Amino acid sequence: MWGDGAGGTLELKPDGTFTADDVCGDYHFSAYGPENDPRSGSGTWGDDGSEGQSRVTVSFEADRVSSTYEALREGKTLKLWTYVGDPDEGHSLCILTLRQG
Fold first, then answer.
1. In terms of DSSP H, where are the helices of 4-89?
2. Does the pLDDT value for residue 44 go beyond 70?
3. Exposed (0-12), middle (13-18) or buried (19+): which is 2, by Cβ within 10 Å?
4. Whole-prediction pTM value?
């Protein structure tokens, strides 16, 4: 289970499905409004990393909207993160941390 620090959660299941509850993400490349609000729902996820970098993409089954998170390890802390909107426009980061439990 991953948490976004604002109460949102993302559960990535071993079978390639996920459930999200009000989780942050960058859900539309050119959207700066409601399309990037936290989302809830379910769908599928996959690891689409390349050599030296891991990425996780979630795709909501209701409307096929997706978000890709970069994977990062800081010491013993695992994180998934993405910019929300265009980083050149000063938009914020969405950072998910792995919850122990």
1. none
2. yes
3. buried
4. 0.84
